[in-house]
Amino acid sequence: AQVFSNVPLAPPDAILNLSTLYKADESTQKVDLGVGAYRDNEGKPWVLPVVRKAEEIIFQNRPEHEYLPIGGLASFTSSAATLLLGKDNVAFKENRVVSFQTISGTGANYLGARFLAKFKPQDTLVLLSQPTWANHQNIFNTAGFTTQNYRYYDPSTLGLDLQGMLQSLGDAPNGSIVVLHACAHNPTGVDPTQDQWQQIADVMQAKGHFPFFDCAYQGFASGDLDRDAFAIRYFVQRGFECSVAQSFAKNLGLYGERVGCYHVITKTEQSANHVRSQVARTSRAIISNPPLYGARVASTVLNTPELMAEWRDNLKFMAGRIITMRDELRQRLVQLGTPGNWDHIVNQIGMFSFTGLSPTQVEAIKTKHHIYMTSNGRISMAGLSTHNIDHVARAIDDVVR
Ligand code: PMP
């Protein structure tokens, strides 16, 4: 008998599949709107100039390559926490912020899930937005949690289903873990307004739910680091204990270096100390010591005032290009008289937009026009450029009619 004869073939990964099809397409008109990474106007990956400068500083210092402590590079994790919460946050003064370096945002979600699975009651549900980043369910299920969806996106308005969301959160068992996208919701691009966050917090407080923020796009969404941290700061200010999974993949363009943090904000210094000791045990089992290089780059940027200022400019540049592409795409669809309302393209924010195209239209735009996007109609705004936007607008117009 074979050891692995009972292992079935896993379903193919939808995104990887898409990029294989894109690569095989020989048309000169082809456009990749699947990628979840920033591209410049020439469709090329963009190394942030501030990252190049930080790398030069690091190499001049001829660094060694010893192990980091389990918690990671302290100069990085503490400034990463400051970036999230703001430097004057009372949680710092009260020593109730716990921060661990992780394998980017994915590792932060996983570390948090594994830690919470040990200390939350066994039947605690994890609530995920419908839809959400495909890996959330995978991560929380792997950590042993049962997941359930809360209503979030309303296909009829291509916006937030606030009433549905509040109702789902209200109907869920008390003390559930609620995964919230801090900004630039993936895949829809639909974020609550500040007033809507307040209503969400009201229900969560009444229900004793635990907020688990996934923050993968701070500064990349609006171009403003503080503005994109609003929801997290607001919940902390209201006295919630919460978790944050933080990624520097998008905002520093350090995708492959896997730079991230898992933070827990507790009520007291004593529980922070206990939580810190337990997260350390959990992280030890998964990675022992986090990787050094990317954390050094991020730390150099975050702790050097001139580089911090330059990073803010780099972020405005990336977010600005994406926001311009949103405007330009909408304008073209309006000019073409494409049936439907296209305001959602500019109302949505961040890397992605939910176009509202049906699976049939997504298939048609691929076969007829060589434009590749996920079957739910999500497009990566970073895949658009001044070179392909006319083609994309005309193609959308064609498949919608
Ligand atoms: N959460 C969300 C919502 C994301 O969109 C992503 C990136 N696709 C991640 C987490 C994690 O990305 P990474 O592990 O590359 O930081």
Automatic annotation (TrEMBL):
Membrane spanning stretches: none
What is any one GO biological process for this UniProt entry? aspartate biosynthetic process
InterPro entries associated with the record: Aminotransferase_I/II_large, Asp_trans, NHTrfase_class1_PyrdxlP-BS, PyrdxlP-dep_Trfase, PyrdxlP-dep_Trfase_major, PyrdxlP-dep_Trfase_small
* GO MF: L-aspartate:2-oxoglutarate aminotransferase activity; pyridoxal phosphate binding
Q: Which reaction does it catalyse?
A: L-aspartate + 2-oxoglutarate = oxaloacetate + L-glutamate
Q: Which cofactor does it need?
A: pyridoxal 5'-phosphate
Q: Which domain of life is it from?
A: Eukaryota
One CC-aspect GO term: cytosol
Keyword Transmembrane helix among record annotations = no
Class of this enzyme: transferase
Known EC number(s)?
Answer: 2.6.1.1
Please state every residue range assigned to the domain named Aminotransferase class I/classII large. Answer: 29-396
Q: Which UniProt keywords apply?
A: Aminotransferase, Pyridoxal phosphate, Transferase
Q: How does the annotation summarize its subunit structure?
A: Homodimer.
Print the miscellaneous field: In eukaryotes there are cytoplasmic, mitochondrial and chloroplastic isozymes.
Give the similarity note: Belongs to the class-I pyridoxal-phosphate-dependent aminotransferase family.
Name of the protein in its database record: Aspartate aminotransferase
Source organism of the structure: Dispira parvispora
Q: What's the source species' lineage?
A: Eukaryota, Fungi, Fungi incertae sedis, Zoopagomycota, Kickxellomycotina
